[in-house]
Amino acid sequence: MVGAMANNGRIRSAFPVTNGSKDLTPNSAPASTTGSEYGPVEFTREDVETLLNERIKYKSKFNYKERCENMMDYIKRLRLCIRWFQELELDYAFEQEKLKNALELNEKHCTDMEVSLKNKEEELNMIIEELRKNFESVQVQLAREQTEKLAANDSLGKEKEARISVEKAQAGLTEELGKAQGDLQTANQRIQSVNDMYKLLQEYNSSLQLYNSKLQGDLDEAHETIKRGEKERTAIIENIGNLKGQFSALQDQLAASKASQEDIMKQKGELVNEISSLKVELQQVKDDRDRHLVEVKTLQTEATKYNDFKDAITELETTCSSQSTQIRQLQDRLVSSERRLQVSDLSTFEKMNEYEDQKQSIIDLKSRVEEAELKLVEGEKLRKKLHNTILELKGNIRVFCRVRPLLPGENNGDEGKTISYPTSLEALGRGIDLMQNAQKHAFTFDKVFAPTASQEDVFTEISQLVQSALDGYKVCIFAYGQTGSGKTYTMMGRPGNPEEKGLIPRCLEQIFETRQSLRSQGWKYELQVSMLEIYNETIRDLLSTNKEAVRTDNGVSPQKHAIKHDASGNTHVAELTILDVKSSREVSFLLDHAARNRSVGKTQMNEQSSRSHFVFTLRISGVNESTEQQVQGVLNLIDLAGSERLSKSGSTGDRLKETQAINKSLSSLGDVIFALAKKEDHVPFRNSKLTYLLQPCLGGDAKTLMFVNIAPESSSTGESLCSLRFAARVNACEIGTPRRQTNIKPLENRLSLG
């Protein structure tokens, strides 16, 4: 791999930098010129492995400051390596896009050359055919003239003038024959030159094929780079776990330090109290001593006068000596208590310093953990962005799987055995395993939502796709699954509960908020809404104010709504009500109106089962007044009716007809998906109203996402397995690269607005 690569058309040179004890060479990897505190750097495979396998050595395990500095330096180098990998991935993505554009231009040029070559070859064939016809006619004419000459020689030997004329005619014909032969030789030379040109074109085509294989190799290398980034993300996650363990250990040490500090403070208080009491006792003893000394002096003075008091004086002296001994003992205790107090103060000071150091190290570790988690989130965002880019380049239909929670009264004893979620790095958040008859069926989709996922979590994953509608793309999101699996809850939510709003209300809120924020950039948008349902293969206008037109007793609408697709891939339904909307509140009112008009019914599988396919369409027209750019986007949000088995639903009468119509349309959808997956020439879009309405989304240039909803109870395992298999086939379909619908306003429109 070369050490310098193209970036925006310029050659980026590699700069060696010392990393640890190794010099990075220009042959190691593509270099990055992004500035950092370590300067421009590049990494080799050995450098990355050395960095990941590096073990930090410490002089002392209790020197937390040194450990923190070494850890900060290690994290900085990790951050530098991660940033280098991110820039490398961006450079690879840019190079891949550049090579893809070059390949498309070369393929187009080759196709044009082949067409022109075929046209020239057909012209030359026509010329050769005409020359052959002329040559044959000349030969026939020559034979006829020779026959006439022989006849003239036999019958009219005497007519010399006629013979001369015949000879002249023969000479003329000979000249014409020579000319024809010259033309034939010229045509052969032209054919030879055309053959040489065809050989050159074949060689050029083979070189293009080699170039295409090289591009495919570069794409494989980019995939390997992404895999290495995911492995590094795993290493970062493990590092975060280690940091969290160190953080908890430091917290335990801090708690122990706090407890020991509290004990020392208690001992200090007890010593202070004991010293104060000893000081009081000492003062009392000193006062008694002074009083006794005064008495001794008084008695000695009187003893000179009274010898009878010698015994009392001796007793008093003995008392004074004993009190002096007590005073010395108390003084010694006071000195020892003061020393203990000094030692306690010193220990307390050391504990306080240690506490402050540990507190600072904990703060540093918290900041490092936050930075590492932030990098992890950014890396996950980058992975999703690259994954979406690869899917858009492939043109596949994205598939999200959502498992609803168990409802009250359902059997949850086998839930853990029926559905499980793999924990490996490759399948984390994207895999789902289904057990049926002790056999494990594994599936992998673009995203899998467990029963604990909220409506907000689901919408976060599709918010960027909704944004594409404002950018001028056609976007289609539809929910598929058996009856009672949570499709309508996913799309519409639960009325009256803001936290459980479905995708349709949340999409509309995001679009209106984004429209408001884009006004500062000169964008103005006009939004139009239409809603319909397909009930028993009949289209009903759910926004019609005429109830007779919405529903009749026999289930057939009086108005005939014909489906038409124009050359641009846009879909139009005849006589369908289309309303301009200004706010999300207006759309919410229209959604409530459509929900009241929609066909629902009660079955043994669902109390309120949707008996029709609901299609919500939002047409977006935007214009930028400063750049004169126009965009036309479409957002289709579809809640399909649930597939069901008659043996489980217990449908009869009208419900039986509805079930048959629903299953027939979903079967037609399966036929379309099967034909797209096999890339057949004929795709049966016209077999049902549903597939014909979805034709631009399934076979055009739209961004399409399917939600497959799964019921977790063990009694629905068979239907869940069928739904997951159908979703896997949908995920494998390639429908083409999405195309943005944008143009520049005509000159007359600009003048009329100005």
Automatic annotation (TrEMBL):
Coiled coil: 85-148, 268-389
The Kinesin motor domain, residue ranges: 396-733
Molecular-function GO term, any one: microtubule binding
GO CC aspect terms: microtubule
CDD domains for the chain: KISc_C_terminal (cd01366)
InterPro entries the UniProt entry points to: Kinesin-like_fam (IPR027640), Kinesin_motor_CS (IPR019821), Kinesin_motor_dom (IPR001752)
Bias kind Polar residues: ranges: 16-36
Keyword annotations: ATP-binding, Coiled coil, Cytoplasm, Cytoskeleton, Microtubule, Motor protein, Nucleotide-binding
Top-level lineage group: Eukaryota
Localization annotation: Cytoplasm, Cytoskeleton
Region annotated Disordered, chain positions: 13-39
Residues spanning the membrane: none
Binding-site residues for ATP, renumbered to this chain: 481-488
Biological processes, Gene Ontology terms: microtubule-based movement
Family: Belongs to the TRAFAC class myosin-kinesin ATPase superfamily. Kinesin family. KIN-14 subfamily.
PANTHER family per UniProt: KINESIN-LIKE PROTEIN, KINESIN-LIKE PROTEIN KLP-3
Name assigned to this protein: Kinesin-like protein
Annotated organism of origin: Arabidopsis suecica (Swedish thale-cress)
